[in-house]
Specification:
44% of the residues lie in helices and 22% in strands. Helix 1 packs across helix 3 and helix 2 runs parallel beside helix 3. It has a five-stranded mixed β-sheet with strand order 2-4-5-7-6. It has a two-stranded antiparallel ribbon with strand order 1-3.
Length: 186
Amino acid sequence: EDPGAVGTEVEVELLKIEQYVDMVLGYLRLDSESTDYVLRDTDLDGLLRQAVRKFARMFILKKITLDFRETGRTVLTDGKWLSFVVEQVLSNALKYTAHGSVTIAMDGDDLCIRDTGMGIAPEDLPRVFEKGFTGYNGRGDQKASGLGLYLCRRVCAKLGHTITAESTPDHGTAIRIGLDQQAVTE
């Protein structure tokens, strides 16, 4: 075996593990009494660039093209928690895209993260934000937890953002994060 290829596979697995740890920590923090959401004007492009940097190595290793279109937007949000959502969505896009691209761009007031991956079966689409739901593609991936998009939906609700999914099997998925809403205070 090519030692370089083995090293690459290990690196990919380590990046995945890091992402799962982040997800579990997010899950634990979400309902903690000490968790606060601090809403302030946030530079969306800076936040997105930071998230993309975190996954740069994965893009390179998987030979996935990134099309990042600057938004020029300032958003009222909690930057730490919106970063968590963007990273979960990027992680999924990379996990379920074997070749092609991931596009990050605004569409009206929605931040749209679109991939050219395997997509989501139509019967699974309405349930992807449910806790523990992994769907057909997730079941093929033994490490799928069914927590990532559930957490994204919970966080977005706390921040006053919406999150929706559109998908065509074998053509990819688009996750839309609506950023024009006002935050819900509990």
